[in-house]
Write a structure and sequence with these properties.
Elements lengths: L9 H13 L7 E2 L1 H12 L5 H9 L6 E3 L2 E5 H10 L2 H9 L14 H4 L15 H8 L17 E4 L6 H8 L3 E6 L2 H11 L4 H22 L1 H19 L4 H7 L5 H22 L12 H5 L2 H14 L5 H17 L19 E3 L4 E3 L6 H19 L7 E5 L7 H8 L1 H10 L1 E6 L14 H7 L18 H19 L2 E11 L6 H7 L2 E10 L12 E9 L1
Parallel strand pairs: 4-5, 4-9, 5-8, 9-10
Antiparallel strand pairs: 1-3, 2-3, 6-7, 10-12, 11-12
Length: 549
């Protein structure tokens, strides 16, 4: 057994005991985890599960109190936590009183904001389906005083992204057309709304899983990773105990940077020993290409095994959805730190201190775990969507919305849909245009473009990251968005409604509206609570409601 240098964590443990001893609480102030979830649900007027409370304990947000072998929580501490992190008041102070908190959809759990097929594949910069539903459905309230769309209408999303508008339109009984310059984005969108032969899908997944498992057995990686996980568990239990470690981080009792670096270096000796013991080679002989940069050689081999098998699948729909599962798996299996998954920094090949999880973590040495997870998850989400699916038309096309002929595209691909489009035209637009110089929409899925051979249209992106946010970039952005709206106008019905979701920090949209002969009749400023990036600062976006002048 390996010898691990001992670190005295006694002071940290003693500090927690002192805190607990000093907190003399009456029985009425102590709650079980289940009682805490019920109390918090009533206090916040939204569902707070026992898992949510357990998360707060695990990540050191609140203390765990032990009494006679039972776990309790201080109601006082829980109240203080929710008051401290009452984002509505805090964010309004930072972003202004015009912030419409009702449009935060704070009351929805993550499982609801990522419901059914909406989460078949990660996508940076997407909006939640509840936002689309709010403006497309048939309800009115204090803010939405009239209906903008009805069942049977056609809605257009000229920046379709991963298809949130298209999918949600289907659920609401509304026809939808999506346009995007990215072939992969269009692929995601259409995969979400397709109908599948579940038996064929499950059969092919089972066969592919067996191929991966056979390769792993033959490659002898199981023994290496088994011992590595054993050593990691021992090390993290000793030096990063849960929840004591994170509690003490929050109290400022530990310098995370110094302590994390020390322990990272300490465990690295164990890691290198195991690499040598099992003769594991993590070096890629080739330097070119995205796959060679971000994946270990044996991981690339597993990916190729799946990809080669996919090419043999006869059912086109099955082939496409399994390709999407592979793409989702690849995204999660890149050799990067957990905290950098949304925005890559540099590839890693060793264990490291993980600021996200507060312990020593490792890179992934196989795709098998995520392949199995996402395969099951995909099938479940497809089944869930069938409960909400309506008999309407949706299609996402690859094209440049500045000049694409929507009538021609629809007529060529779906004559039945075209007859409806020709008869009633498009009722309006609901879309989130790209922001100025913020996201590289093609590069975020570079792994899929390289493996599957999708054509990249980076040069067609409006507000591309490489153009920056300077004066010239902003001018180009205004012209680009205006061209899109002017082109789309010709396909819109009379009295149309256009909704544009944007973070307009440069105040560009009044000028855009002027350029296209539209007027902003209303705007809704909403907080964005769940972002994929590490920046958790107060952040808002505006939904501009435009109509013909």
């Amino acid at each position: 057994m390996l010898n691990i240098c001992k670190f005295n964590y006694k002071n940290i443990k003693n500090s927690k005991k002192m805190i607990q001893q000093n907190d003399i609480l009456s029985a009425s102030e102590l709650l079980t985890i289940k009682e805490a979830s019920i109390w918090a649900s009533n206090y916040l007027n939204k569902t707070v599960t026992s898992s949510n409370i357990a998360y707060l304990i695990q990540y050191g947000r609140i203390s765990k109190l032990n009494e006679n072998g039972n776990t309790f929580i201080s109601k006082k501490e829980l109240t203080e936590y929710y008051e401290k992190y009452n984002r509505a008041n805090v964010w309004k102070k930072k972003l202004g009183d015009d912030l419409n908190w009702a449009l935060s959809f704070e009351e929805y759990k993550e499982s609801e904001t990522t419901k059914h097929v909406h989460r078949l594949h990660p996508y940076k910069g997407k909006f939640i389906p509840q936002l689309v539903e709010y403006f497309l459905d048939d309800h009115i309230d204090n803010f939405k005083k009239e209906l903008f769309f009805k069942k049977g209408d056609i809605v257009l999303d000229p920046f379709a992204g991963n298809g949130t508008t298209v999918v949600q339109a289907n659920e609401l009984g509304i026809n939808a057309i999506g346009i995007d310059v990215s072939e992969f984005n269009s692929f995601i969108s259409n995969s979400k709304i397709e109908k599948y032969d579940l038996f064929d899908l499950q059969l092919n997944i089972k066969g592919i899983t067996k191929l991966i498992e056979t390769y792993i057995q033959e490659a002898h990686y199981i023994e290496f990773e088994k011992e590595l996980l054993l050593e990691l568990n021992k090390f993290n239990t000793e030096f990063f105990p849960v929840p004591e470690y994170k509690n003490n981080l929050l109290k400022g009792m530990i310098n995370e940077n110094i302590y994390g670096a020390e322990k990272e270096e300490e465990f690295l000796r164990i890691y290198n020993f195991l690499l040598e013991k099992y003769e594991i080679n993590l070096e890629n002989g080739q330097n070119e290409g995205y796959l060679n940069k971000w994946y270990f050689p044996h991981v690339i081999k597993e990916i190729r095994i799946v990809f080669d098998r996919i090419k043999e699948i006869k059912n086109i729909k099955t082939k496409k959805i399994i390709s999407l599962i592979l793409s989702r798996t690849m995204r999660s299996c890149r050799a990067t730190k957990h905290a950098d998954l949304a925005t890559l920094v540099e590839p890693i090949s060793s264990t490291y201190y993980c600021s996200k999880h507060g312990k020593i973590c490792k890179p992934l040495f196989s795709i098998i775990k995520w392949w199995k997870t996402y395969s099951v998850d995909t099938i479940n989400r497809i089944i869930q969507f069938e409960k909400y699916r309506t008999n309407t038309y949706q299609r996402c096309f690859v094209g440049d919305s500045r000049n694409v002929n929507i009538f021609t595209l629809v007529e060529k691909n779906d004559p039945a849909f075209y007859s409806i489009l020709q008869r009633q035209k498009i009722a309006g637009i609901f879309t989130s245009p790209p922001y100025v110089g913020l996201i590289d929409y093609h590069e975020q899925h570079a792994y899929a473009y390289e493996l599957f051979g999708f054509k990249r249209n980076d040069e067609l992106e409006i507000g591309a990251l490489y153009k920056g946010q300077g004066k010239e970039a902003r001018t180009s952005y205004v012209e680009g968005i205006a061209e899109v709206l002017n082109n789309c106008k010709q396909y819109l019905a009379d009295n149309y409604n256009v909704f544009l979701v944007a973070n307009d920090k440069y105040n560009l949209y009044p000028l855009i509206a002027e350029k296209v002969g539209m007027e902003i009749v209303n705007q809704y400023k909403r907080p964005v609570l769940n972002r994929s990036e590490k920046d958790k600062a107060a952040y808002s976006e505006i939904i501009f409601h435009l109509k013909q002048k």
